[in-house]
Amino acid sequence: MDADRLLEDYTPGDFFFGTSRRAILGSGSQQVFTGADVVSLSEIVPEALAGSPESLAVGVLPFDTAGVPGHIIIPETVRVAGPARPRERKFIGAPSAVRAVPDPVRHVEAVGRAVKILRDGGLRKVVLARALDLEFDFDVPGQAILHNLATDKAGAYTYAAGLPNGRSLIGATPELLLSRVGGQVISHPHAGSMPRSADPVTDRENADILANSRKDHVEHAILTEAIVETLRPFCRRLDVPRSPSLVSTPTMWHLGTVVKGELADRDVTALRLAAALHPTPAICGSPTEAARQLVGELEPFDRGYYAGAVGWMTPDGDGEWAVSIRCAEVAPRALRLYAGGGIVPASDPKAELDETSAKFQTLLRAMGLDL
Ligand SMILES: C=C(O[C@@H]1C=C(C(=O)O)C=C[C@H]1O)C(=O)O
């Protein structure tokens, strides 16, 4: 079976997770775990899974559990297939209204304030996001958006997850928070960005600018350092490349570092490790608490499950958890798209606005929209 069948069968509320290796579709729910304490969730879920060795736990962690809880379910049925292949893009239709939250001028101002705070010292990095609200006169075809993201390989991890509020989070992220297979763990943090270009010369130039940008390397180093610091106590060996590599999606260039580790204790599950790592400086900042507080002060919305984690886990603790970015929260007739960027003292507010516009393209492109 390939992913086509699973993508056809997806209905809102289901869980879908597709990579270059496989696609997973989880439907219905045998058990639901909702909780603000993500670490205890990561301890309860494996106990429940022990009773259903054939099943998986799937779900989402929010950016900040102060606003919304972690939401993990054991689906009634789980189907696994091969990876999605290129297919013709499905038609979505245009929105009747589009609104930026905050408006672009306010976002530039917020980034300017963050830059000032960072330059005054205390904080090393903060990630600021903005949203795009789209309204429709018809029911939004979440299935078609997911199909387009998966078959276009819009990101290494295409996902959809039902949320406690009845909506769905749908997206395609390039960023792996954590995978565990037996004793081997991998994290692939991303920080540092430039847009792709349809013109090959500009595209290459953008990649070269990113590869040589001191600001982006600083931003990236803060992230990798935090990932390594968190994983180190869990691992008996950690393999960390000395410098990041260029990675790409159809819409963005990034700096990425593949961190590989060997667990000291095989009882530590993928979800437990994801809970320990989240929120990383890729989507929050450094130091974590001060950055989280500044995000709350400067962003005029709750992130919900954007900039959280999405993934799955087997009863023996293996699994994959991706950073839930390049996504939209999908309601019956409305969508909220999110995009953010890391701010360091050397950041330029206007360039940060452009970066978020470029990051919206993952979803807009999947919807056939040119906004
Ligand atoms: C926060 C987002 O992306 C993150 C921020 C990045 C950056 O600031 O360079 C790069 C990749 C992601 O870790 C997003 O896409 O919304």
From TrEMBL:
<dbReference type="InterPro" id="IPR005801">
    <property type="entry name" value="ADC_synthase"/>
</dbReference>
<dbReference type="InterPro" id="IPR004561">
    <property type="entry name" value="IsoChor_synthase"/>
</dbReference>
<dbReference type="Pfam" id="PF00425">
    <property type="entry name" value="Chorismate_bind"/>
</dbReference>
<dbReference type="InterPro" id="IPR015890">
    <property type="entry name" value="Chorismate_C"/>
</dbReference>
<keyword id="KW-0413">Isomerase</keyword>
<protein>
    <recommendedName>
        <fullName>isochorismate synthase</fullName>
        <ecNumber>5.4.4.2</ecNumber>
    </recommendedName>
</protein>
<dbReference type="GO" id="GO:0008909">
    <property type="term" value="F:isochorismate synthase activity"/>
</dbReference>
<feature type="domain" description="Chorismate-utilising enzyme C-terminal">
    <location>
        <begin position="107"/>
        <end position="359"/>
    </location>
</feature>
<comment type="similarity">
    <text>Belongs to the isochorismate synthase family.</text>
</comment>
<dbReference type="GO" id="GO:0009697">
    <property type="term" value="P:salicylic acid biosynthetic process"/>
</dbReference>
